[in-house]
Amino acid sequence: MKKQIFTIGYEIPGNSDNYLNFYSDLSLMDADILLISPESLYPSENYGNWIDFSSGGGCYNVPTSSEYEKKIIHLQKEITDFLQSGKSVFIVLSKKQSHMLSSGVSHPRKGESLHKTYTKSNYDFLPISIGTLISASGKHICFSGNPTFRNFYNSFKDNLEYKLYVENPKEVDVVFTGKTKTKILGAIYKIGTGYLITLPMITFNEEEFTKTKKGVDGEKEEVWNKKGLIWGSNFIQCLIEIDNKLTNNSEKTTAPEWVSKKEFISMKEEKLLKSISKNKKKVLKIKEENEKLKIELEEEITLKDLLFEQGKPLENAVIKALKILGYQAENYDDGNLEMDQVITSPEEHRYIGESEGKDSKDINVTKYRQLIDALNADFARDEVEEKAFGILFGNPERFIEPKNRKVDFTAKCKTDAKREKIALIKTSDLFLVAKYLHENNNKKFKKECREAIHSQLGELVKFPEIPKKE
Questions:
Q1: pTM of the predicted model, to two decimals?
Q2: Looking at the structure, do residues 313 and 253 belong to the same domain, yes or no?
């Protein structure tokens, strides 16, 4: 099973579900690897938490200070337990920040407050001293050649920069330094049976790795794009590789860089290295092909959303199914009027559709009324000369397998639909005919399905029986 990487203060593209908030009730029990960026470890900055001193400066108030210290202590304990269980913790060396806190306040005179202050830094969560921390920034990073980190360095060297370096560490295996070798930018610390690994900052352009799309509620949201997901997947794989090499070879000395010189390499080793390199290229090609296949698969299984989805995913699945049936169909939103589906048949019938999914109930008049309003608003537009027909697509009891569902549309919904000639369609029924037509080029059945919808306006639509395979 793939190892789980939890992160605090550093969101890896594609791993957002395992991104933890410092102020949440952290539990690292389910994680195999932990990655922390200390820049996110600061006191709560809600309004009123900071107190300005009349003499200059200030501090966080007592409740905020107390909460911050408790969170730091809690995180330190979690990390200690994590390391003692033989796991790996990666620390991204972000800038050191000190925070002025208050442990108490006294009032020697009326109107005067004296705060008992002390400082905590965003690195005080560490269970050991990793050395003297000095904030400084730059991009010149020297790699020691440690084989455990070679793949990581080759993959992400263009993303590395430093915001802090460490001096005078004890019992450490140095991996990255600045020009001056005493300024350590990355290292391995053995703690019990676990490993604490420090790394330089790993940066990426968030705009380059994200795209905007509409969420379930119709609001625009940013999501990781394909490029970002591939980058994140490679990053995770490198961290897992480092962890595997460290935890599986804890008794073996890391080979120095010079043993990779040609004079120390046997003919068989060279042959094996070439084979590995060749296979890596094959694997990379397969990964790229799989990414393309995943995108194709995602598009292919959209129809299944008719069975269990609601909101925008259900709307889009209905549109796909209608297109398979031969309709033209699309969302409509001009800023004033928004409709789930505007539908036109080859027979030149025009429909307005609305879609609704319910977790455990039948489809009621709420969405039905919305459809009636949409029909009237659409007809009021200057370019519309004839009022459209209405279709309400319903997905009741969406978490239950369709054959076991007991309800569809409420009696009130059916009564009013009959009066207003609104077609009622269960999306699970639409799925069955759309799936058949997606797999079979049957123009006759396609037309029969469209005729079934139009001839049953005002009713719960029953599609014709799916042709049996000969």
A1: 0.53
A2: no
